[in-house]
TrEMBL record:
It catalyses: ATP + protein L-histidine = ADP + protein N-phospho-L-histidine. Residues 218-436 form the Histidine kinase domain. The keyword Transport does not apply. Gene3D superfamilies: 1.10.287.130, Histidine kinase-like ATPase, C-terminal domain (3.30.565.10). InterPro entries: BphY/WalK/GraS-like, HATPase_C_sf, HATPase_dom, His_kinase_dom, HisK_dim/P_dom, HisK_dim/P_sf, Sig_transdc_His_kin-like_C. Pfam families: HATPase_c, HisKA. The lineage of its organism: Bacteria, Bacillati, Bacillota, Bacilli, Bacillales. Keywords: ATP-binding, Kinase, Membrane, Nucleotide-binding, Phosphoprotein, Transferase, Transmembrane, Transmembrane helix, Two-component regulatory system. It is found in: Membrane. It is an enzyme of class 2 (transferase). GO terms for molecular function: kinase activity. This is histidine kinase. Its main location: membrane. PANTHER family: PHOSPHATE REGULON SENSOR PROTEIN PHOR (PTHR45453:SF1). It comes from Geobacillus proteiniphilus.
Length: 442
């Protein structure tokens, strides 16, 4: 049980660490991507704008020529040449009628495509557009820009330019890919490292915890002998000296017996927990009738119940057979019954209901006592947990009972649940799985 607790804590620490690393890497990757891509793209934009400006200065006269020439005759001499250097990707001088009168291009085969996209676009000052075209299987990214040519505020055409940014886009893509892969690798590494580190951090805690458990086991074991000697000594005094003792001494003897009973119970519980931790408890399962067990338990609880005038009611068929470790199931039911009396009010009630179907036996112990506040309900099965010590103080106990009950139920593969309302009472429901062969055996 405690190993499980340590494993859970280790797992939680690793998860926390890994989540922090994931957040860190996601931020790092996105920031790197944004910074690098914006640096590269800002530069490309600027180049596209500069190019548009250059080509404008160089070729606006061609449009002017066309304009004036056009006024007289319709004949224009179109000339588009193949491109000489890697820059620019293309430029086209296009009249307001959509006629290309001059240009230069790297890939004549995509001219149609580009002209199609340009068609109707009148770039404003420093306007830039991202476009893609495919040549064969290759996708090409380019930045489209341009400048309008006006004469006396009359629009006569546009000089469009494009620069090829495929390489830059490729660099940004590769960089993003590399960053993502590296982040995943580092996240993986940090999870492994986090698991290792949290394991190391747990070692001293686990050791201290182990020593403390060993101490509890040894101490409770060592206490058993003196306690039983004390017990038998008191019994001897009681039987042999009772007549000679005065009233006060008899009272002292009674108190001693009570305290001894308490100490013996605590010692046994602690020893039991220590044994369950070291898996030294094995279950011996058998079929047994539950009805006599319930009656016997009620008889055991009666002295305390009578002090508070608590009534028991039992709802179960007398022939119910249960499969499990009889001693442990008695112990489990005693813990629940004892609590239902301890935490009950004067004139309260305790009802015991047992039902079984083909797969399970369901044991319900309900009281009309002080109840358990909702916020405490999920902790009461933990070791040494007591609801608000001040209210439980009136009752002897160390918060061990329900943790033992839970252990027994778990060992049988069953479940234990509580429903409770403060000041109204509590209902504990235990379900124990049963083998289906009862029909043939019972
Ligand atoms: P203990 O009774 O020794 O304190 P348990 O493990 O048996 O320890 O119970 C844990 C806590 O749960 C108790 O301190 C008590 O406050 C609460 N509790 C258990 N059973 C009941 C019940 N039937 N009614 C109200 N409170 C209960």
């Amino acid at each position: 049980m405690n190993d499980k607790m340590f494993k859970q804590t280790r797992f939680r620490l690793t998860l926390l660490f890994a989540s922090l690393i994931v957040v860190f890497f996601v931020l790092f990757t996105s920031a790197s991507y944004m910074i690098v891509s914006s640096l590269i793209m800002t530069k490309q934009r600027q180049q596209a704008i500069d190019l548009a400006e250059e080509e404008y200065m160089e070729h606006k006269f061609e449009l002017l020529n066309w304009y004036y020439k056009n006024a007289d005759d319709d004949d224009t001499d179109e000339s588009i040449s193949a491109h000489h250097s890697s820059m620019p990707f293309f430029y086209y001088v296009i009249t307001r009628d959509g006629e290309v009168i001059k240009g230069e291009e790297s890939f004549p085969e995509i001219r149609e495509n580009i002209l199609h996209r340009i068609h109707g676009w009148r770039p404003g000052n420093k306007d830039v557009r991202y476009e893609t075209v495919t040549i064969g299987n290759e996708k090409i990214w380019f930045l489209l820009s341009g400048k309008q040519v006006l004469i006396k505020k009359i629009y006569i055409g546009t000089i469009y330019t494009g620069i090829n940014i495929t390489e830059q886009v490729y660099i940004v893509k590769v960089l993003t890919g590399v960053l993502c892969v590296m982040s995943i690798v580092f996240i993986g590494l940090s999870v492994v490292l986090g698991y290792y580190m949290s394991g190391r951090a747990m070692v001293p805690i686990a050791n201290a915890f182990k020593r403390q458990k060993e101490f509890v086991a040894d101490a409770s074991h060592e206490l058993r002998t003196p306690l039983s000697i004390l017990q038998s000594s008191i019994e001897v005094i009681e039987s042999e000296e009772k007549g000679k003792l005065g009233e006060f001494s008899l009272q002292v003897l009674d108190d001693m017996k009570d305290e001894l009973k308490r100490m013996t119970k605590l010692t046994n519980d602690l020893l039991w927990l220590a044994r369950s931790d070291s898996n030294a408890i094995t279950l011996t399962k058998e079929w047994f009738p539950l009805f006599p067990v319930v009656n016997e338990l009620i008889r055991k609880c009666r002295p305390l119940a009578e002090q508070k005038q608590i009534r028991f009611t039992v709802h179960m068929q007398e022939d119910i057979m249960v499969y499990g470790d009889k001693e442990r199931i008695i112990q489990l039911m005693f813990i629940l019954l004892d609590n239902s009396v301890k935490y009950n009010n004067e004139n309260g009630q305790v009802s015991i209901k047992v039902e079984r179907n083909r797969k399970n036996v369901m044991i319900e112990i309900k009281d009309t006592g002080i109840g358990i506040p909702i916020e405490h309900q999920k902790y009461i099965f933990e070791r040494f947990y007591r609801v608000d010590p001040s209210r439980s103080q009136r009752q002897q106990g160390y918060g061990i009972g329900l943790s033992i009950a839970k252990w027994i139920v778990d060992a049988h593969g069953g479940t234990i649940n509580v429903q409770s309302e403060e000041k109204r009472g509590s209902r504990f429901i235990v379900t124990l799985p049963q083998p289906t062969i009862i029909e043939s055996e019972g």
